[in-house]
Amino acid sequence: MSHLPAGAGHDKEAAARAGALAGLLDVAICVAAVCASNSAVLLADALKTFLEFVAMLLAWLALRRISRGASRNFEYGIGKLENLSGLLVGALMILCLLIILGNAIRNFVKPAHVSGAGLWIGIADQLIYFGINTVLCRRSRRAAARENSPALAAQGRLLFTRAVANAFILVALVLSMGLARFGWAVYVDPCASLLIGGSILLAALGTFSSSVYDLLDRTLEEQDQLLILRELAQHFNDYEDLHGIRSRRAGSRVYIEIFLEFAPQQTVAEVQRTINHLSERLQAQLPDSHVSIALADRPPA
Amino acid sequence: MLDITLKPAPPGVTVQLAGHLDAVTAPQLELQLEELFHADPTPVVVDLGAVAFVASAGLRVFLAGAKKARRAQRVLALCGLQPQVRQVFDLAGMTPLFLVYATADAAHAALRQQGAPP
């Protein structure tokens, strides 16, 4: 059983697949540029691009699995696969950061002017992928906002850092070549690498925080909690007591449990009508949500 | 951090709150209200004059409190709501569920005059 509306899953999967394919092509070009040059920044970029490609691949595989639906072994869906995918993306970003830092330190210790035909390949590559990443980043962010998907949000952040990295590497390569007659130009590459590392660190922290909190079943944000309370206040006379509200996220899905007590004189039909109305109203207001209303005469354990 | 002070105002009581009412402090108030609803005093007037922030967890305590007060045939009233706190109650659509007064004295005086109907 699929947990995504028809069409929505396909959009997400298509966006992730496009990102993975673009990443694979970028890896090939970066490796060619590194092989034909002595640029440490291009080497770091090739490694980073490879890791980003792996991250894209994971996001695509997770979304592909989700869009095909959960098996009987996962009756509550496999939305957390998106959170796990986001977590892996965050770990890969940290790995990228360490590589970039290592390369920068090496260049500071043993500075050398960059040279080789690979530089021109690198410049062309950065220019083209800056455009591609910018376009894909916009698409991912729009899809993430529309579908409330942590995986696509992580992908959007990743594409943004890639576009920023493309721009910085492009400027670093152009400056390194254009200003080769100056001794200080050898430090342009490592300095640009460190700036890119900073942007990756910020993106990694954002990815980690959203994925980890969701994996730990964090409750809904305040504005969503207010929506739930608003509905319960509007139906104040339809139930006898409120014994608790629980909520959690699993990937892009939101699960809400409300424990209500009803008056003994109410008929089952009346109770069912209230439950249906409350559930439908909340599910309409909270995208991708599943609302369960349990009959209770005491707070949940 | 939430300080709860009970001030008798026969036949009722004022529950004076000071601090933040959030997920950490809300259970304190929940416990206090339940104890009061099981005891004699009514009306129970909650003074929010020194409360600068009420999170959804705090609102939930008031919503459940309103229900429990009705079941126990007690009156639960609020007073001293700061503008930002009032706004949160309004956003959650909960203001109409309570009798709201400017001060605790005004609340007790008005409720005494009304005979504090449940």
CATH-level-2 architecture of the largest domain in chain A: Up-down Bundle
What do the pLDDT scores of chain A average to? 81
Overall structural class of chain B, as computed from helix and strand content, comes to alpha/beta
Biggest chain pair contact, residues each? A-B, 16 and 18 residues
Query: What is the total number of structural domains of chain A?
Result: 2
Low-confidence parts of chain A lasting 5 or more residues at pLDDT below 50?
Answer: 1-6
Strand content of chain A: 5-15%
Question: So, CATH architecture of chain B?
Answer: 2-Layer Sandwich
Instruction: Measure the end-to-end span of chain B.
Output: 31 Å
CATH superfamily of chain B: STAS domain
Rg over C-alpha atoms of chain B, rounded to the nearest angstrom = 13 Å
Major β-sheet profile of chain A: 3 strands, mixed
- Provide the β-strand percentage band of chain B: 25-35%
CATH superfamily of the largest domain in chain A: Cation efflux protein transmembrane domain
Number of strands of chain A: 3
Query: Which structural class matches the secondary elements of chain A?
Result: mainly alpha
What would the principal axes of the Cα set say about the shape of chain A? elongated
Task: Name the helix and strand elements of chain B from N-terminus to C-terminus, one letter apiece.
Answer: EEHEHEHEH
User: What is the name of the CATH class of chain B?
Assistant: Alpha Beta
Give the proportion of residues in helices of chain B.
40-55%
Shape of chain B: globular
